């Protein structure tokens, strides 16, 4: 389910709030989750994000393979008639599967390189992609003869960048100033992180996602323009390029979208899963190994089945927001309200002696709040997955607001439980007193 403009703003504020914590204490999302869910209870939050990252890695790789297919078709027109040897039940053609694995192999070596050393790739991306977006926007407006016909058309485009709230801290922990992270997240044309500083080196880490609202506007404009110009309704931009009678334009469009897919997989999806696995299995897995595990496991998701079924694709996006929204509400409520902007960083890395040990390493208040926050959106989610299920119209409206509903209810329930049954905490460190752990302490690449 796509985010409304208001929810999109809320997601951007969530990115800023999460990024502030990461930049202040030098911790990533899995470590932060220990403060709210417990030293062991954070497994729920970590697995929820990891599953999302694995599936999105597979989807982005498949979409990158489609981009490669467009590029090869533009260079070699005969490639468009590549013989298919797969049955319709496979939901993928031979050429699509071939391009998928070629693109998959291309990005594997890039996972070996530390994210901070890929700044030139992201710098190139942040220059090229906005130019491409403006050109595509201009083409849509000119060919559709202005804005009137565009917005009079209906569109079924949906998008979700809720997961950005959960990956922001993985990168902002390297930032020099929390304030810089907040302003860059909210106002920058590149979302959510722009400039990070590690030690004494200024590192430019661009382009996890372009600005959410700009993407939404561009998607609506281009989709509506295609309906006006060609009489075809499609949410896939690569299908739009197939309608162009210009091989150079097709190749450049495929290249730009492929660059976006690679950037997202490297900087967002695989890195998030790598951080999660490094926390769960620190003795055996660091971030780099976790990234490769993400890449290998993503093959099992069969992304072509998800991609080629609009119903399952949109249901996946909306369904997973149900699980991510309450976690976001719990984490932010715990830090900004219950703990008054303070964390004991050292205790996040201890067990029984930690103030975050709660009950055998699990904070039942967070677990209960998480479960309760799922209830209001479950009927609408079930109806979205299975259209044969009849639910009240009110349940569908609630599901349409699954992100703010989950954040508010999850945070409110957690705060209520914490007030009625308060956890016993010692003196916590203020941001000025806290010392961020070493980059090596949470299983980073250099370990």
Automatic annotation (TrEMBL):
Pfam families: Transp_cyt_pur. GO terms for molecular function: nucleobase transmembrane transporter activity. The keyword Transmembrane helix applies. The chain crosses the membrane at residues 6-27, 39-59, 95-115, 122-141, 180-196, 217-236, 248-268, 289-306, 312-337, 357-378, 398-421. GO terms for cellular component: plasma membrane. Keywords: Membrane, Transmembrane, Transmembrane helix. It comes from the Eukaryota. It is found in: Membrane. InterPro entries: Pur-cyt_permease, Uracil/uridine/allantoin_perm. It is a multi-pass membrane protein. Belongs to the purine-cytosine permease (2.A.39) family. This is Nucleobase cation symporter.
């Amino acid at each position: 389910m796509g985010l409304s403009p208001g929810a999109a703003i809320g997601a951007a504020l969530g990115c800023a709030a999460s990024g502030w914590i990461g930049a202040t204490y030098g911790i990533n999302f899995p470590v932060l989750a220990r403060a709210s869910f417990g030293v062991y209870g954070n497994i729920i939050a970590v697995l929820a994000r990891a599953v999302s990252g694995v599936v999105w890695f597979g989807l982005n790789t498949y979409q990158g393979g489609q981009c490669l297919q467009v590029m090869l078709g533009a260079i070699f027109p005969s490639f468009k008639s590549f013989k298919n040897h797969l049955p319709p039940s496979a939901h993928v053609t031979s050429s699509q599967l071939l391009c998928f694995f070629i693109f998959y192999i291309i990005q594997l070596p890039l996972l070996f390189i530390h994210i901070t050393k890929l700044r030139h790739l992201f710098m190139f991306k942040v220059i090229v992609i906005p130019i491409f977006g403006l050109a595509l926007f201009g083409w849509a407006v000119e060919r559709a003869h202005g804005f009137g016909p565009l917005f009079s058309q209906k569109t079924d485009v949906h998008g979700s960048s809720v997961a950005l709230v959960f990956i922001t801290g993985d990168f902002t922990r390297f930032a020099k100033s929390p304030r810089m992270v907040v302003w860059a997240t909210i106002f920058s044309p590149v979302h959510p992180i722009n400039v990070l500083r590690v030690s004494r080196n200024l590192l430019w880490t661009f382009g996890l996602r372009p600005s959410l609202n700009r993407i939404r506007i561009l998607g609506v404009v281009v989709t509506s323009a295609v309906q006006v110009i060609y009489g075809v309704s499609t949410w896939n931009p690569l299908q739009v390029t197939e309608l162009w009678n210009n091989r150079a334009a097709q190749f450049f469009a495929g290249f730009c979208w492929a660059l976006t897919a690679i950037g997202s997989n490297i900087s967002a999806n695989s890195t998030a899963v790598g951080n999660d696995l490094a926390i769960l299995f620190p003795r055996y897995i660091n971030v780099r190994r976790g990234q490769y595990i993400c890449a290998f496991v993503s093959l099992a998701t069969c992304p072509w089945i998800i991609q080629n079924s609009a119903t399952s694709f949109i249901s996946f996006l909306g369904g997973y927001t149900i699980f991510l929204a309450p976690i976001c509400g719990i984490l932010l409520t715990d830090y900004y309200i219950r703990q008054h902007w303070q964390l004991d960083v050292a205790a996040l890395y201890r067990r029984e002696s930690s103030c975050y040990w709660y009950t055998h390493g699990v904070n039942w208040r967070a677990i209960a709040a998480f479960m309760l926050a799922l209830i209001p959106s479950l009927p609408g989610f079930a109806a979205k997955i299975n259209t044969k299920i009849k639910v009240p119209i009110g349940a569908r409206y609630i599901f349409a607001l699954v992100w703010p509903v989950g954040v508010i209810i999850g945070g409110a329930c957690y705060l209520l439980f914490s007030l009625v049954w308060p956890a016993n905490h010692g003196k916590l460190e203020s941001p000025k007193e806290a010392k961020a752990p070493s980059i090596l302490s949470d299983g980073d690449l250099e370990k």
